Amino acid sequence: MHWKELNTTTQLQTIIEASHRQAVAIYKHSTRCSVSFMAKKTIEYNWDYDTVDIWLLDLIKYRPLSNEIEQLFSVRHESPQLLLIKDGKVVYHGSHNNIDLHQINQHIELV
């Protein structure tokens, strides 16, 4: 898998535009949190979605961008958190130990 680093509002607009062609994921990651670290490793080990771009947001460096994501998609900020976006809308979100790749797979199959 290949993480794309999310660190600008311009990239966020790119994600929204891309979501009209394919599902796009954003993983909000805290580099100071062991739960976030373990969730990231689980995603890396199990991610099998070649058609889905996945963006990594470092919450320590870019917290204001996370706040913008919260407002834009009306999904309360949590960390760690995974959002799946299709057609400019969040179709799945999970946080902490509730990030479920099986549910993500079901949503990807629907889009």
Any overview of this molecule?
By secondary structure, the chain is an alpha/beta fold. It has one domain: 3-Layer(aba) Sandwich (Glutaredoxin), CATH 3.40.30. Strands 1-3-2-4-5 form a 5-stranded mixed beta sheet, with helices on both faces. The longest helix has 13 residues. The chain is globular. The mean pLDDT is 91.
Give a brief description.
The protein contains four helices and five strands. By secondary structure, it is of the alpha/beta class.
Helix content: 25-40%
Distance, first to last CA: 20 Å
Number of distinct helices: 4
Estimate the global geometry from the Cα principal axes. Answer: globular
Strand count, sense and barrel status of the largest sheet are:
5 strands, mixed
Descriptors:
40% helix, Glutaredoxin, single chain, 5 strands, 111 residues
Give the arrangement of secondary structure elements.
Blueprint: E1 3-5, H1 9-18, E2 24-29, H2 34-46, E3 53-58, H3 63-73, E4 81-86, E5 89-95, H4 101-110
Parallel strand pairs: 1-3, 2-3
Antiparallel strand pairs: 2-4, 4-5
